[in-house]
Amino acid sequence: MEFFDKLGKKASEAYKITADKTGKIAKETKIKFKMNDLKSQINDIYEEIGKNVYEKHVKKENISVNDFEEECTKIDVLSDEIEGLLKECLELKDKKQCPNCYKEIEKDAKFCPSCGEKQEEMKVQEVEILEDVETTEVEDDEHIEDQINIDQIDEDKSENLEKTIQIESNVKVDEEESKEDD
To answer: Are residues 132 and 77 in the same domain?
Structure first.
């Protein structure tokens, strides 16, 4: 009977490990799909900028970087989102990115296997857990601070989204006006 209990426990552990890995792979796939979609959007913006530059060239108009500020802002927002997704993807795989060559490497690597760059060592801090009323109050305060930080990040994302929506709506209005002129 003991044999079957051990067998059941081993099977259960194997199932949990497999389910965890499968979940990580599924999340990674979704993240990569989203990253590719964002890269496609950036390429569309590049194409739009190139088309506008060429049209100005043909019309012998002056070309100014300020003419493309909205498009550049869109690219910045999309690039930031891609960078965040990349970090999330690396975290799922327990990896990091070399700051020199940007290759994916192991988190505990001391040197990049691709370029040889020395890596910053991750600092591990040892924390002593004390169980008393004051510690609990501090933890609650830290939880509130963490929530405030999360709220601030959400506000920043919201502001970026609002900027993007405003830029996109301005572009649509400009496009509609140019169609009416034709």
So the answer is: no
